[in-house]
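As described in the Methods, two query proteins were run sequentially through the folding procedure within a single session, without resetting any intermediate state between them. The first query and its resulting structure tokens are shown here.
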Amino acid sequence: MKLLGIDYGQKRIGLAMAQNAMAFPFKTLEKSTRDKLFADLLAVIESEGVEAIVLGLPLDMNGEETLTTRQVLNFRDSLARRTTLPIHMVNEALTSFDARERLREAGVPQRRHKEMLDQMAAVCILETYLGNS
């Protein structure tokens, strides 16, 4: 099954793909208009043959919802109105920290971290999902 991992952010949306229990960075979408964001996202879903979506759910360290949590839930609801694919939610606590560490350990130059961080966070979200499935 081909999965699309999404790390939703205020400025950028990190995407990762997983197939055969292997997750890899895919793309970062820059947020401009809501319509363009969903058009770009649906184009990826169609062109890549995605069968399910895994969306990171940002909870605070106590597992409580925050303003960002509500924004992600609104994004999920908007996406669900545009696709029939199942959307699975995964707690994304510490994924950005983990993603930053992985980039550093892989020797990725600091100047490339910004462009890759959201994708790597999406990889972490997918790996959490795959580990829990």
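Immediately afterward, the second query was submitted; its sequence and tokens are:
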Amino acid sequence: MTTESPRWYKSSYSENGGQCIEVATNLAPTHGTVPIRDSKNPTGPTLAIPA
């Protein structure tokens, strides 16, 4: 079992206005999901979208 942590990043196009999401694509190969979160609330809930 892996305990890999998500590596969050946001698009370079998201610098205008602050309405951004962050994704952690590094978990797709091992977990089959891509976590998504609100960049303004990094400790808030995340969505896990199937890869």
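The mean pLDDT is 87. We note this only descriptively and draw no conclusion about the first query from it.
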